[in-house]
Amino acid sequence: KKDISVANFITHETHCSRNIEVCRYCSELIPKSEMKNHIESEHVQVTCKCRMKIEKCLLKDHEASACPLRPALCQYCDIQLPFSKLQDHEMFCGARTEPCPGCSLNIMVKDLKEHPRVCG
């Protein structure tokens, strides 16, 4: 998959066909001697803590951005909880009230950032 000079092409093609394979899963060029190890280490199915089966090579991305059990921080109290529980927690947490230091009214936590504009 690279440019080869015409003078070396036949030798190069022979060498590649004997020693290199294209992985049937990821289309990477892998030395034939390492193909079994590549498949076992990268493409074996593993089970995430959320019980989803996924290729090992995709697990880190899944855990970081798609797993419903990945850690997430509440925007109101900074507690860490699973992403799947974040929305319900933030609805409850944001509805709590705290007294405004300026006007002493009880303001919902979710509105505290905007309140100073109305509070004066």
TrEMBL record:
Pfam annotation, one family: TRAFD1-XIAF1_ZnF
GO MF term set: zinc ion binding
GO BP annotation list: negative regulation of innate immune response
Every TRAFD1/XAF1 zinc finger domain range: 78-120
Keywords: Acetylation, Metal-binding, Phosphoprotein, Zinc, Zinc-finger
GO cellular component: mitochondrion
Role of this protein: Negative feedback regulator that controls excessive innate immune responses. Regulates both Toll-like receptor 4 (TLR4) and DDX58/RIG1-like helicases (RLH) pathways. May inhibit the LTR pathway by direct interaction with TRAF6 and attenuation of NF-kappa-B activation. May negatively regulate the RLH pathway downstream from MAVS and upstream of NF-kappa-B and IRF3.
Name recorded for this polypeptide: TRAF-type zinc finger domain-containing protein 1
